[in-house]
């Protein structure tokens, strides 16, 4: 009786083990890590798709309209560009952009698009972790305890990006030609 019970237990256990071990499962696909060049190219594509040049690149006028200045690509608001005067009362309820789209005035005050080039006046000294924190948590310069990034920077949308995509953008930005440009500090709203 004991031997029969042991045999039965062994047979049942074997069937359960084989049944639970589904060999027809699809094997997980392993994706090879991107090469540095592939990561940079992916970052370049993302920068173009999400429109970083729209606000972070000074423009030049062509016969087809304004385009990013290739010599100042992603260098932020030009430190030498003065904003025109405006009547704060007449623009209440509006958001104003300068002609380059690198500065914006709204209820938050005046904000200037950052220099995203690898120069020390841009993101040259930033770590990948700082860039992730800026893009995903909206922290100024990616620093703990710093203020939130100001509009129109849509960091809330970018916070939904995969870390690998943000890292690819960072790799692309670090591959650009550095442009020395100290972007002005934001200006609080007029009271």
Structure, described:
This protein has 191 residues and is α+β, with helices and mostly antiparallel strands. The protein has one domain. 35% of the residues lie in helices and 9% in strands. The protein is built from six helices and five strands; from the N terminus they run αααβββββααα. The strands form two sheets. Strands 3-4-5 form a three-stranded antiparallel β-sheet, with no helix packed on it. Strand 4 and strand 5 form a beta hairpin. Helix 2 packs across helix 6 and helix 4 packs across helix 6 (163-175). It is globular, with a radius of gyration of 26 Å. The N and C termini lie far apart (94 Å).
Which features characterize this protein?
191 residues, three-stranded antiparallel beta sheet, two-stranded antiparallel ribbon
Structure summarized in a few sentences:
The chain has about 190 residues and is an alpha+beta fold. The chain has 6 helices and 5 strands. Strand 1 (about 60) and strand 2 form a beta hairpin.
Chain-wise SSE layout:
Layout: H1 2-20, H2 36-50, H3 52-56, E1 59-62, E2 65-68, E3 96-97, E4 103-106, E5 109-112, H4 128-137, H5 155-158, H6 163-175
Antiparallel strand pairs: 1-2, 3-4, 4-5
Helix pairs in contact: 2-6, 4-6
Uncertain runs? none
Strand order of the largest sheet: 3-4-5
What shape does the CA trace take? globular
Number of domains: 1
Total number of helices: 6
Which class best fits the helix and strand makeup?
alpha+beta
Q: Please report which band the strand proportion falls in: under 5%, 5-15%, 15-25%, 25-35%, 35-45% or over 45%.
A: 5-15%
Strand/helix succession:
HHHEEEEEHHH
Rg over C-alpha atoms, rounded to the nearest angstrom: 26 Å
Helical content band: 25-40%
- Overall mean pLDDT stands at 89
Number of strands: 5
**Termini distance?**
94 Å
The biggest beta sheet is recorded as: 3 strands, antiparallel
Protein name: Diheme cytochrome c-553
GO molecular function, one term: metal ion binding
InterPro entries: Cyt_c-like_dom, Cyt_c-like_dom_sf, Cytochrome_c-type_DH
Keywords: Heme, Iron, Metal-binding
